[in-house]
């Protein structure tokens, strides 16, 4: 066992993997400017549940502006940041993830997002007049990414030949739909340089929502798990978005984690799109084969979310709804 002489690190699992794990060059890429992008998107969802989007129409500057604001916030004295926490579940969090004992080498801001009209949970630091540039960067970014998610969900319906074309997008764009936005900062950790391992930044998990849109700076760290259970590193690309999708069993939601290698800090921003709490989660009849039964008993997003918050990050959250 490796013992780190830093109390703050004691609780965080170390992962014995080479610092710069092998890069995975086969991440499916969906180019929104190309004909056939709907089919490419469906293929990627079936195969991996994870893909990269290019030519997405979101100006790179929007993400860069928000990233710069986030860096300013995370550079504040710890006590100032903590005025916006602890997350219950929204607010500023440091090392603790969720309510059930998960920890990681990460600090973050979690916002609840309502879609129509767009609004987000307030936090103590956002009330300051000096947070005006943060607020405007956040709003513009959320609006642009919301449009991207809606385009992707329409394209998915097109690729699956589902009518109406907004069958998926309306689930997550309505007044009652529940979005979450997460700004993560994985700080440098110089002590790791000497060890041939990484710290868990964000432990392995699947996202409970329907679609998540991730953008990070150019630091490595994100890994996904392939069907054979092996972990591969996703090469960072600050100009693209990485998409994680879940739809009722036909598409899988990819298991992923973030490692903090200690050398360079990583900043990521993820917008998670969920439906309204009363929405029933069930396979679309159009996607079921003849005589095929759903593997799961019926449940609402509200019930699923409640169960999620009782779980640990790495738990199989769908398992308890199996028939
Ligand atoms: C994983 C995906 C999102 O980051 C998140 C996470 C949430 C949290 O950080 O509060 C959860 C986690 C996530 C699933 C299980 C529960 C809830 C932490 C946790 C242990 C914001 C989300 O919606 O679910």
From TrEMBL:
Its cofactor is L-ascorbate. Gene3D superfamilies: B-lactam Antibiotic, Isopenicillin N Synthase, Chain. Keywords: Dioxygenase, Iron, Metal-binding, Oxidoreductase. One of its GO terms (molecular function) is metal ion binding. It comes from the Eukaryota. Belongs to the iron/ascorbate-dependent oxidoreductase family. GA2OX subfamily. This is gibberellin 2beta-dioxygenase. It comes from Musa balbisiana.
